[in-house]
Amino acid sequence: MKKSSDGIGIMDKPPEPSPDELAKRSLNKIKNKIMVMSGKGGVGKSSVSVNLAIALAEKGFKVGLMDVDIHGPDIPRMLGLSGMLEASADRKLNPMHYSDNLSAVSIESLMVNKDEAVIWRGPVKHGAIRQFLSEVAWGNLDYLIIDSPPGTGDEPLTVAQLIKDARAVIVTTPQEVALADVRKSISFCKTVKMEILGLIENMSGYTCPHCGKSVDLFGSGGGERTALQSGLKLLGRIPFDPRVVQCGDAGVSYSRQYADSPVSKAFLEIVDQVAAALEKN
Amino acid sequence: MKKSSDGIGIMDKPPEPSPDELAKRSLNKIKNKIMVMSGKGGVGKSSVSVNLAIALAEKGFKVGLMDVDIHGPDIPRMLGLSGMLEASADRKLNPMHYSDNLSAVSIESLMVNKDEAVIWRGPVKHGAIRQFLSEVAWGNLDYLIIDSPPGTGDEPLTVAQLIKDARAVIVTTPQEVALADVRKSISFCKTVKMEILGLIENMSGYTCPHCGKSVDLFGSGGGERTALQSGLKLLGRIPFDPRVVQCGDAGVSYSRQYADSPVSKAFLEIVDQVAAALEKN
Question: Which of A8, A123, A199, B29 is buried deepest, with most CB atoms within 10 A?
Fold first, then answer.
């Protein structure tokens, strides 16, 4: 029999749990899992994920933010986090810490060169996302917010397969082209049997900073219409505010900086709606 | 030996060419292939693809528009095309016709229920995109514009592998989070050895329709800065105009409807820049 360096037979060691088993153990310590998805890119999905996570954390919940957008990971920049993940005592990876209540993981925090493209086909991405669960020391969480890339491809499919009790929040902008893609997200959730908590209409109207008059950049009301048609709850409408973009670029918390803005108030209402929808279950 | 119904031995028929060979034959009849890509979603990549294709077609070129965004195909709606692809005499699929000079293909034109999600892992998508080339009767074209989904995943990788002489145009909005993802697109093109024709900065500034004053919705100048830093050509800057969104939703040609607008002029300039960049080669 082979001997390891400490003289104990390797065969005597208990077998390593499988990655699926390890992922399950991590998930057992997390109460609520919410995947933020969108049919179309650029509807502000990552902004919504970040601001939702921050708002929940500031209410006192323990929150994890998992960025499963492998090709366009925006979460670290938006949270102002730039380091790499480090190993913990039990050889797991420690998530990055934004605050006492909010930790985050992204593919970017595993890459030395942040400008390098991740050119992976689907099955490799599946493995990476599973590692985000199996090898990260998330600890006990009230919420895991999962920021998914747009569409209904490998990443959201992997989340649906690994996290059976994940629920979806769908973000859209009000124009018809975006809404057509939202209907695909709804169809996706039905197919994989993922409950949808509701819809968020983002970039819904804009107030000119010079004259104070309202402009519909991407149309308006489309999210509400789609929610009605598909029997979903409209969790809230978030107006467009260029300062959300600026804060995201600078890695600064918008809701802390502009606590009294209409956008921040919309987020707080959405958090209440989400919490209420979860309590019903 | 088995006999077919007309009495001729099946073995006498020449072997069916492989899908790769068929794709190659289609591509041999197409002069210029341009993949419109972006690091981030929602930067108006599909709008740019559509308007670029229309502008080229109106200049008298024969243009094909291939929508390889499998999970969020927007091209048919934007062109106002809703039918299904039909088989031609030689058992190939006829692309949809927008005008004499512009034809298009999208996964949506193969689906009966347009709201259904396509939940496919990478390798299946590869096969579908190859069929867009091998089984579609594109005919002789001056330009094939390829609208790719955001990021550096399966779809652009498949395009790079199947269309060796494809060149890239990268679309971005001016904010830093978008630009971080653009650098990933540049890294992707270097890795797969795809020439980059240049960068387009979209949604670059906005003029309030009420007071006429200028607002930077997504910041401004970031595309120019990134082009400079990475030694790429800036092909043009397109201002934000909500009517682009409205036209896209309605399937109406923006450049026909608003020929004198700053956006239409920006597109014409970009077409000239693209043509000039291609002539140099």
Answer: A199
- Both tokens assigned to A273: 């709606």
ipTM attached to this prediction: 0.80
Task: Name the most confidently modeled range: A191-205, A237-251, B118-132.
Answer: A191-205
C-beta of residue A72 within 8 angstroms of C-beta of residue A149: yes
**Contact check, Cβ <8 Å, A122/B154:** yes
Domain B17-279 matching CATH 3.40.50.300: the answer reads yes
Q: Which helix (H) or strand (E) holds B171?
A: strand B167-172
Q: What is the pTM of this model?
A: 0.86
CA distances from A240 to A128, A222, B243 (A): 33, 15, 17
Tell me the nearest-neighbour CA distance from A20 into chain B, angstroms. 19
Question: Rounded to whole angstroms, how far apart are CA atoms A156 and A133?
Answer: 14
Residue B167: C-alpha distances to residues B37, B148, B164, B186 (Å): 10, 12, 9, 12
Residue extents of the structural domains in chain B:
17-279
CA distances from B26 to A117, A169, A234, B163 (A): 30, 42, 47, 11
Closest CA of chain B from A64, distance in Å: 21
Of A258, A263, A163, A154, residue with least CA distance to A205: A263
User: Is B88 flagged in the annotation as binding?
Assistant: no
Angle, helix A154-162 to helix A122-134, in steps of 10 degrees: 40
Burial of B139 (0-12, 13-18, 19+ CB in 10 A): middle
Nearest to B240 by CA among B53, B48, B35, B50: B48
Half-sphere exposure of B27 (CA within 13 A, CB side): 23
CB atoms within 10 A of CB B6: 5
Residues in chain A: 281
Report how far residue B224's alpha carbon sits from residue B182's, in angstroms, rounded to the nearest whole number: 12
CB < 8 Å to B193, chain A: none
Amino acid identity for residue B191 in this structure:
T
pLDDT bin (cut points 50, 70, 90) of residue B11 is: low
Question: Do the chains contact at B149 and A41, CB–CB below 8 Å?
Answer: yes
Q: Answer yes or no: are the C-beta atoms of B129 and B135 closer than 8 Å.
A: no
Judging by DSSP bridges, how do beta strands B102-106 and B30-37 pair with one another? unpaired
